[in-house]
Design a protein that fits this description.
The protein is an alpha/beta fold and 195 residues long. It has a single domain, classed as Purple Acid Phosphatase, chain A, domain 2 (4-Layer Sandwich), CATH 3.60.21. 24% of the residues lie in helices and 27% in strands.
């Protein structure tokens, strides 16, 4: 089974829609979302996209009431966890999902999972700890790296392929970067993203 692994939408609905169109063409049967919708716009798109979605909360998700309420609507394809980590079993694979990188390696080292997926720092990465795949799909938002990506996890061979989203837009611009330098603020050195 092919499963899309996505993280950190950060309200970039343009990139989310582009990702969903790619997923349709790749016959994705499940989406696992690792947190940071921000607001309910992305929730509504995922709830109505036609592919089952299992989602976690991230550290930046506001309006949790509306997010949960949307997931509980009759036509919704979205199942919302009440945590920033959870367990998912599908196609004989045991998967640990978390928004936070510090939880990923210990869970992979436990030997209890075939795959561990995490988000939060927006940086695409994959590794293996013994037989456990550990991966971050990058960011849908393209707000930190400037590149919008997601992963396609294949349960047959426990592998992940990263997909870069063509025609994605990013709010990471030279103007923003230059202004941050002027005010002496560097995004990657903020407390919440220092891992």
């Amino acid at each position: 089974m092919k499963i899309a692994i996505i993280s950190d939408i950060h309200d970039n609905l343009h990139n989310l829609v582009l990702a969903l169109k790619i997923m349709e063409g790749k016959k994705i049967e499940q989406i696992l979302f690792l947190g940071d919708f921000i607001a309910p716009g992305g929730v509504k798109i995922l709830a109505g996209c036609g592919i089952p979605v299992f989602a976690l909360f991230g550290n930046n998700d506001g309006e949790k009431y509306t997010i949960v309420k949307t997931s509980l609507e009759e036509r919704s394809n979205l199942t919302m966890s009440d945590k920033t980590y959870d367990f998912f079993e599908i196609d004989g694979r045991k998967i640990f999902l978390t928004h936070y990188p510090p939880l990923a390696k210990p869970m992979a080292k436990s030997g209890d999972f075939d795959a561990v997926f995490y988000g939060h720092n927006h940086e695409k990465n994959k590794d293996k700890i013994e037989k456990c795949l550990i991966a971050n799909p990058g960011e849908i938002s393209a707000s930190k790296t400037g590149i919008a990506t997601f992963g396609i996890y294949d349960t047959k061979d426990n592998s992940i392929e990263f997909i870069e989203i063509p025609n994605a837009i990013s709010l990471k611009t030279k103007e923003v970067d230059n202004y941050r330098k002027e005010i002496n603020f560097e995004y990657s050195k903020t407390k919440s993203h220092k891992f």
